[in-house]
Structure formats: structure tokens, C-alpha cells
Specification:
The protein is α+β, with helices and mostly antiparallel strands. The chain contains six helices and twelve strands. A hairpin with a 5-residue loop joins β2 and β3.
């Protein structure tokens, strides 16, 4: 296909993909059950969160970020979003990048995470993009740049309430210890600051074998891939479930839109499924060691209420599962129900919100895709009467 025809087709496809992601046109499906992992090693000295440009963590940079000072200086909210595709056609490439998440930042340390998801600056001159449910008694405001990341407030409460079992610090310790990750594969890259079409695929991993921990982060770690990462009935990494065929690189930033994605986060004693709808991924592509890694990454998505309760269902604190009769459960449920600020599909101001907006900063270092492997067996959870799975609001 001629390059100009390929580029034109891609620009149309990328635009449609972006609009579809903004509208949240996706259906979530996936795994039931909870997962057990070994205790993670202690946090490295000086660890201060995740999402920076070093393996030790640090504050996240949203790539196309707009901070509060920008808003104040201009007197208007400038939406923090992804860069547009390259304006000129680019030649196809054959570079493949494989990286594994090395740090995460959920905004619970005070950093700014996420991107604008609904083209509105709620409380910054715009109203909400969906109707507040009757039990939500206050307007849920965006952070700087119209970023939709109500999840940061949730994890800011959860981290101290769970004794540090849930939050950026614990989750990054698990990443750096090799107990979990998500791998990102980019194909067809030309290795330059601009490429108008690459393929991006996401592959959740439940961690390296114990004998291979901690990771070396030099590109030689082969991470087993959860068998839920490929389409049903397939046993090949060539059939990924979570894929964007129309991703691109613009000004050195990778941009992708994935309708449905999931990862399995290792907490103190369990894997928690984080299932996301209509996600955007934006990250800086940086050359390293003859290949590339991703820094200053942002994953912005909708986290549906049903998937939030499944996340809680899978939680394991040092004291055991988090059941409805636990002392902190009413606070947690109240926060979940009061944080529905966005809708997971096509929406109008009269459509009732059904999701929490989520922002997650990350860095990712060179890695290898290992073989497909089943997730670990579920650990004992709450008895049915007190199981958060399937709980509803209010």
C-alpha cells in the first residue's frame, strides 16, 4: 500500500479510535476470583512513589500535561490530553519494543496523574459529562488540566486505611520485586520521533518465577503472561486481547487507545484484578541499550463500579480478606459510590455516571514476553453473605 494511502487510512482510524475511547465504547469481560502471592520485599530506601523517570520512583509527568500554574496563568482550563498523530506520512518500520511496568503512581502521594477523558473541565468552567447518581451529594471536580482521576482520592484514603497494603508504594515494591507487572509490546515502529502507525498490545503478568526474582531490568527477564491476555480459544501471543492496531508515535510520545484492558496487581497476599474501560496510554519513548523503554507514562481510563467491587473482593490485607463486616468497609464503599464521575460508554449530561475516572502514572523497562501461564489459584475469601463481589450502591 502506498505510504500516503496508509497514512490517510491511519489518520481516519486513529481519529475514530480516539473518539470511541473518549465515548467509552467498550464492554468489560474477564476473570473471576482472587489470587494469592508471596509477600513482597521491603520498599527500597528513598522510595517516594512511582511514575517518574527512574526505577526508584518519583513524581509522574503526564507527557502532554498541563499543570495548575498553566491554568492559573491563562485564566482558563487547558485540557491535558494526548498529542495529535504526525501531520506528515511516515514510512513503516520493523522495530519491536517490549517493556514491563517497573513503577506505578496512583496519585496517592500528591502527584498529578491522569488525562482529560471527557473533553470537559468539571468545576473549571464546565459541568459534568454525566448525571450524578442520587447518592452523590457533591460535584466531583477534575484536577489541573481537566484531568479525570477521582481514583487518586480513593487510593489516598486506602493507603493509610489498609496499613500500606494498597497503594503506589506497595504496588511498586511488587513490580520491582517481580511479583507482578504488565508488559507493553509495540510493533512496526520506525525508531523515530514520529511514526503514524504502530501496533500496541498489553499483556498482564502474575510475576516472574521465584527463582528469577528480582528482575534484572536489562531486557533479559522473560515474564510469564496471564493466559487471559489472548483471545478466547487461542494459545498464542500473536492473538492479544488488549490491542490497538492504530497506535502512533508523535513528537517522541507513544499514544494508544485500548477499549478494554486489565492487569493483576500484587498486594500483600493476593492479586487484584484492575479492569479498565476505554483507556488511553501516553508515554515518552526513550532509547536505551540499543532498544527503547517508556518513561513519563500515563494510563487514563474509566473504572466501572462492578469492577471496583471485584477489586475489593480480591483484596487481601495482612488481617485477611476485606469483607462487608470489616470496620473499614463502610468507609471504602462510601468512597467508591461517591466517586462515580464518568460514564463508561456514549453519554449525555442526563446519562447517570457508572464509573470512576482513573489515572495511573508509570515507567516501563526492557523485558521479554514469556510463555502463557494460568493465574495462581484463588485464595480463600469472604463468605457469600459478606463478600463485596456484586455489591451495589448506595
Amino acid at each position: 500500500m502506498p505510504v500516503h494511502a496508509r497514512s490517510a487510512r491511519h489518520r481516519i482510524g486513529a481519529t475514530l479510535a480516539a473518539l470511541a475511547a473518549l465515548a467509552g465504547c467498550a464492554v468489560v469481560s474477564g476473570l473471576d476470583g482472587d489470587r494469592r502471592v508471596a509477600d513482597a520485599p521491603a520498599a527500597p530506601a528513598g522510595h517516594g512513589g512511582a511514575g517518574g523517570t527512574s526505577g526508584a520512583g518519583g513524581a509522574a509527568d503526564a507527557g502532554p500535561a498541563i499543570d495548575a500554574a498553566d491554568d492559573a496563568a491563562s485564566g482558563a482550563c487547558v485540557l491535558a490530553t494526548y498529542p495529535a498523530p504526525p501531520a506528515a506520512p511516515t514510512a513503516p518500520g520493523d522495530v519491536e519494543i517490549v517493556v514491563a511496568l517497573r513503577t506505578v503512581d496512583l496519585g496517592d502521594g500528591g502527584s498529578v496523574v491522569g488525562l482529560d477523558l471527557d473533553a470537559k473541565c468539571t468545576c473549571g468552567g464546565d459541568g459534568p459529562s454525566c448525571k450524578r447518581p442520587p447518592w452523590v451529594d457533591q460535584e466531583l471536580c477534575d484536577s489541573a488540566g481537566g484531568r479525570d482521576a477521582q481514583s487518586a482520592k480513593l487510593f489516598t484514603l486506602l493507603s493509610p486505611a489498609t496499613g500500606g497494603d494498597v497503594g503506589s508504594a506497595r504496588f511498586t515494591v511488587g513490580l520491582q520485586g517481580g511479583t507482578w507487572s504488565m508488559l507493553v509490546r509495540v510493533r512496526g515502529y520506525n525508531g523515530k520521533p514520529n511514526d503514524d502507525r504502530v501496533q500496541l498490545a498489553l499483556f498482564p503478568s502474575a510475576g516472574l518465577p521465584i527463582a528469577q526474582r528480582p528482575p534484572r531490568w536489562d531486557g533479559s527477564d522473560a515474564w510469564p503472561i496471564a493466559d487471559t491476555a489472548v483471545v478466547e480459544g487461542s494459545d498464542s501471543l500473536e492473538a492479544p486481547r488488549f490491542v490497538d492496531e492504530n497506535a502512533y508515535v508523535s513528537g517522541g510520545k507513544l499514544v494508544a487507545s485500548v477499549g478494554v484492558s486489565e492487569m493483576y496487581i500484587a498486594g500483600s497476599q493476593a492479586y487484584m484484578p484492575l479492569r479498565l474501560t476505554a483507556a488511553f496510554l501516553v508515554a515518552t519513548v526513550q532509547a536505551k541499550g540499543g532498544s527503547f523503554e517508556l518513561i513519563d507514562g500515563q494510563l487514563a481510563a474509566r473504572w466501572k463500579l462492578v469492577d471496583m467491587f471485584e477489586f475489593v473482593h480480591a483484596m487481601r490485607l495482612k488481617s485477611g480478606p476485606l469483607c462487608k463486616d470489616a470496620a473499614i468497609y463502610p468507609m471504602l464503599k462510601g468512597r467508591l459510590c461517591a466517586s462515580l464521575d464518568i460514564y463508561s460508554s456514549l453519554t449525555t449530561p442526563t446519562t447517570e455516571c457508572d464509573s470512576m475516572s482513573l489515572g495511573l502514572g508509570f515507567t516501563a523497562s526492557r523485558a521479554m514476553l514469556g510463555a502463557l501461564a494460568p493465574l495462581p489459584d484463588p485464595s480463600p475469601g469472604c463468605p457469600p453473605p459478606t463478600d463485596p463481589l456484586g455489591d451495589v450502591c448506595p
